[in-house]
Amino acid sequence: MKTRCCIVGGGPAGMMLGYLLGRAGIDVVVLEKHADFFRDFRGDTIHPSTLELVYELGVLDDFLKLPHQKTPTIDARFGDFQATVADFTHLNTQCKFIAMMPQWDFLNFIAEFGKRYRTFNLHMETEATGVIEEKGKVVGVKAKTPKGDVEIRADLVVAADGRHSTVRDVTGFEVEELGAPMDVLWFRLSRKADDPQTTTFFFEAGHVVILLDRGEYWQVAYIIPKGGMDAMKAEGMEAFFRDLTHIAPFVADRTAELKSWDDIKLLSVQVDRLHKWHKPGLLLIGDAAHAMSPIGGVGVNMAVQDAVAAANILTEPLRKGDLTEEDLAAVQARREFPVRVTQKMQVMIQNHVISPLLKQDETLKPPLPVRVAAAFPPLRRLPAQIIGVGVRPEHIEMAEDPAALAAPKKSGTRKAAKKPAKKAASKAA
Ligand SMILES: Cc1cc2nc3c(=O)[nH]c(=O)nc-3n(C[C@H](O)[C@H](O)[C@H](O)COP(=O)(O)OP(=O)(O)OC[C@H]3O[C@@H](n4cnc5c(N)ncnc54)[C@H](O)[C@@H]3O)c2cc1C
Questions:
Q1: 423 burial type by CB count under 10 A (0-12 exposed, 13-18 middle, 19+ buried)
Q2: I need a labelling partner for 416 at 20 to 30 A (CA). Which of 101, 235, 261, 264 fits?
């Protein structure tokens, strides 16, 4: 097989980049090792910055038809004290909320829209096992499929294969570990009418628990000290339920929904980044280039931002066939600053807020910033801006190539695409 760009990994980064390149008329192949996108407890938070990109692509109305829950505010509770600490309703974006949506719905949506372009080729059940290198340059990917091994030659290989990236391992990139003092247990509990009405962070002596509103159920993130899962298992589920109901008493009537530790998924938190995101013929993006802490739920959104920046910078060199390593360096230069700033804030919160909280054994008082935000509502907009929009958000700059369309356009779905397309056209002019 031969293509302009071969992307390894059909997660948020790989699928978005594949879609954008295919839409711009660049022949692209995306390899995903699984047969479907069904993964429980992955990043399900679609932030206003990502929704803005979906709007710029002209498919926001279709997107919002998918089942989702809107989170316009986030509350924090310290003992009996509860206050709203982030308010997204004043953001200067189309959507003034976080959309909670299963990641498989998000990825299926991109795959569906991607299929409209004959230049977008998604190969499921195709696992990259190595790269092809010639004269110090990556020129393709080796992969295995149920039908046998394949080789895909490409002008550019993009590794978007997540935090345990195979491509990163076989090509020998240096990873800088920033460390994380915590792990997260994910599980779900049913939600009842008289439960709290919004996504809430619970801070109690020795515990931090987040209940994400998923409509009929709560998606619960239970934060534990790094490597603490074995000790919890040794103490038994009853001890765990005691702690959980001490923090959120209203779930006491439904802990039996968790039948064994198998119902609880461990996310081993890892925060890292590469010094260099590229080498000749190869670029790494998303978690493969920088695993984010779960603080702020930004992982999916950072991965999508990387994809947009890469598409903005690489579309023209790929089209002309004159891509150089400087183009790949330009992608890193564009994205490294937002990644560094976000990770710095996450590590600061991990080390100075979460870690001391997990060690504390006295009832907590709400810290000053929380009390101030409770008293002055406009201050709740700042965390909303940092979480929801982030540092230096990307915008769609490349226009759709009508010649790449495989089938006639669906009517009524592409209205908002006019604006960025015009912008890109005037830029090109
Ligand atoms: C349990 C858990 C909970 C999380 N919760 C949140 C959250 O609430 N909010 C948030 O924003 N982020 C969350 N994250 C992080 C978020 O999921 C990631 O940051 C985000 O998905 C990164 O996107 P990505 O495309 O870079 O990588 P990934 O999503 O990891 O995608 C990589 C893809 O590559 C495929 N792949 C891997 N190796 C190969 C190979 N050799 N060949 C072919 N395909 C391959 C994988 O199957 C996968 O589909 C969570 C992560 C986990 C594990």
A1: middle
A2: 101
